Amino acid sequence: MAAIERVEINPKVMLGKPVIRGTRIPVELILRKLAEGSREEDLLDAYPRLTLEDIRAAIAYAADVVAHEGTLPVASCPARLEVRERRKGRGSSSGGRSRPRSCRDASVATEAR
Description:
By secondary structure, the chain is mainly alpha-helical. The protein folds into 2 domains: 3-67, Arc Repressor Mutant, subunit A (Orthogonal Bundle), CATH 1.10.10.10; 78-112, no CATH class. Helices cover 50% and strands 4% of the residues. The chain has 6 helices and 2 strands; from the N terminus they run αββααααα. The chain is elongated, with a radius of gyration of 24 Å.
């Protein structure tokens, strides 16, 4: 049985976290327990409604989520670029003005203008 048939997301159950269908057992809990070293048998003993297929579906679900995860390019921070340029000796003088020391400072300075 595919992970999609065993894992459900319902806003009324566990605040919409993915759970094993018909239970309140979050996929996250299964994955964390396995990552901590619990054996499948340990989980089956601790959660009687859980089956071996449910555990495998939780792992398959996590693999699917990671496989379809997207990445977004992050723009370079102007303050960091300025620091790099100064270190290379190519930076311009600030003319007595205070320059942003971080991206957060840079964004605040931009919003204030």
